[in-house]
Design brief:
Strand order of the largest sheet: 1-2-3
Distance between the termini: 16 Å
Strand content: under 5%
Number of strands: 3
Shape: globular
Order of helices and strands: EEEHHHHHHHHHHHH
Oligomer: single chain
Structural class: mainly alpha
Radius of gyration: 27 Å
Number of helices: 12
Largest sheet: 3 strands, antiparallel
């Protein structure tokens, strides 16, 4: 909102009422009198609203709800642009929810070792599951040719095969649903001119990333189906490809969530935050960004833990084998030695612990720092600070529980879901801090 105010008056000579950073329609209303004495004016374009302190940002919602005269003179563009922004924002929230669900299902698919049950990639006809007994037997026969069946699941029954098949099928089906739920509304909103050129380009980029994500997923599955690609002869997908698949999914999810936040909450926060000094706001923003980055790195580290089954060793906490730094954390068997970080299961678990503890320490530090400015922060920002500490604490408890109980599927799935939840709250907090104005 741009406001030019004549000194020592309550007369706003020019006010630009903007929808926000999303690039939607901007409409200008000139000569808005905010002093009651201006009620004698006969101009049809003058609107009367209660007087606001000069430092308080103009709020269209407050303007509409508190105006007692000439409400119907507000241009329809205001309502149309706000409605468009909210509609697009809600659509993106729905898409983000679907991506979150796909990440969770993908985690369960890995935990139940179901990811290699479908040995072909058919983007279109693969959407139809086996419907008859003969169809199921054909799929089962294909699975019997895979290394996983021959080395781990010899003698598996058809019913057991159906159990792992449905997890992988659900994961792939969700990917197709997300593609449809994103593509058709995107075309609709583009046709209706609801999207700015910048937002259109951003959403097109996300859609292309989603298409590539399917290819990355199949590239990952192939590493567990090819005898020549198996690490140590163990039939499991490459931890590198698994990490790439998860990284792409988290980036897509984070991008959609960030855009949705910008559309649904674009305006500056409460006037109390104007009492914060720039140094304080910048410090909170920098540490919040650091916490978001640490959360992201810890999630990707978890992909290597899952890919190597590193959670099944050293099931004690806080020590590993009675030591802070366990034996075998650095081995000469790997050349170059940096491969320890991605191929040595002891090192991978150790670094995941270190990253998790470091992330929790950073979040706790951020929360304690926020208490110093608590009375100046808007309610939504305070809630975000409370939420990130609460979710981080829950996530640490889930991580330790997963380790001590030898990675049972329900607790491990909750731990993976908690990681994405923490990432979501960190994004929300960073967005809240970016919205804070300061004096």
């Amino acid at each position: 909102v741009g406001v030019r105010i004549r000194a020592n008056t309550r007369f706003i000579s020019s006010t630009s009422l903007c929808v926000g950073r999303s690039g939607f329609i901007t409409n200008n209303v000139r000569h808005i009198h905010t002093h009651p004495s201006s009620s004698s004016s006969s101009s049809s374009h003058k609107h009367f609203v209660p007087y606001f302190p000069l430092k308080q940002p103009f709020s269209l919602r407050r303007y509409i709800t508190t105006t007692t005269q000439n409400v119907h003179d507000i241009p329809k563009h205001f309502y149309d642009s706000i409605s468009a922004r909210k509609s697009v924002g809600k659509w993106l929230v729905g898409c983000a929810g679907l991506v979150l669900g796909m990440i969770v299902v993908g985690g369960v698919t890995r935990l139940t070792e179901s990811g290699l049950s479908i040995t072909e990639w058919k983007p279109v006809v693969g959407a139809i599951p086996p419907l008859s007994h003969s169809d199921w037997m054909a799929e089962f026969d294909k699975y019997k040719q895979s290394p996983e069946y021959n080395k781990l699941n010899q003698g598996m029954s058809l019913e057991s095969f159906k159990g792992i098949y449905y997890w992988e099928y659900s994961h792939r089906l969700l990917g197709r649903i997300i593609g449809l739920a994103f593509f058709f509304p995107f075309i609709y909103y583009s046709t209706k001119k609801y999207l700015s050129p910048k937002l259109t380009a951003q959403l097109a980029g996300i859609f292309m990333m989603g298409g590539a994500q399917g290819g990355i997923g199949w590239y990952m599955v192939k590493s567990g189906l090819d005898e020549g690609l198996l690490a140590g002869g163990v039939p499991r997908v490459s931890q590198y490809r698994l990490a790439a698949h998860l990284t792409s999914a988290v980036v897509i999810y984070g991008s959609i969530t960030w855009l949705a936040l910008g559309l649904l909450r674009p305006h500056p926060n409460h006037i109390a935050s104007y009492q914060l000094k720039p140094e304080a706001v910048h410090s909170l923003r920098r540490l919040s960004l650091f916490c978001l980055g640490m959360t992201f790195l810890t999630i990707i580290s978890g992909a290597f833990v899952a890919g190597l089954d590193a959670g099944l060793i050293y099931n004690t906490f806080p020590l590993m084998g009675g030591q802070i730094v366990p034996e075998g954390v650095w081995s000469d068997r790997y050349s170059p030695s940096s491969r320890n970080f991605t191929e040595n299961d002891v090192t991978v678990q150790f670094q995941h612990r270190v990253l998790g503890i470091s992330t929790y320490t950073a979040i706790t530090t951020l929360y304690l720092m926020s208490l110093k400015y608590h009375k100046y922060l808007p309610r939504s920002t305070k809630l975000a600070f409370h939420a990130i500490l609460g979710v981080a604490t829950t996530q640490v408890i889930l991580g330790i529980s997963t380790l001590l109980t030898f990675v049972p599927v329900p607790i491990a799935a909750a731990h993976q879901t908690g990681a994405i939840s923490l990432f979501t709250v960190a994004l929300w907090l960073l967005h809240e801090l970016r919205r804070l104005p300061f004096k």
